[in-house]
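QA checklist item 7 of 12: single-chain prediction sanity check.
[x] sequence parsed
[x] length recorded as 149
[x] structure emitted
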Amino acid sequence: MSLLVNDPDLAAVYDDVRDDKSETNWVFFGLASGKPDRLQVSGKGSGGLSEFVQQLQADTAGWGYVRMNMSNDEYSQRVKFVLVPWCGEAVGVMKRARLSIQISEVKNVVRSYHIEVPASHVHDLDEADILTRLRKAGGANYDRQTSAY
């Protein structure tokens, strides 16, 4: 079953999250009620990863997109984006199967992200762990000074 992702609101809120001047720093794309082939904006906010995680439910599925600020020191601030395929623990088998196929169509909307963090429980979305993964994905990491000698 193909997922309809042509609603202009989807692209608009995606662009809003990507805009450094916008306070919106996360969005959750879910399936429209009664229309499992239609993607919709199910939530958005400006409270970062912690606010995003609070709105996730065990019986819902969808895709989150989160803007995160990270730094190695006080002088280097960087913005990174995380795609969160969310499938709560109470989601049925058929819906789970559909989600694995629909992710490719969602990526037509959410085109740019640094890491993908699949989650089925809020504990899968630990901020410290995600920041560590973002640093590793970013290449050089100057947090630790180690010597090869």
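[x] summary fact logged: The helical segments are 8-18, 48-54, 93-106, 127-137.
[ ] second reviewer sign-off
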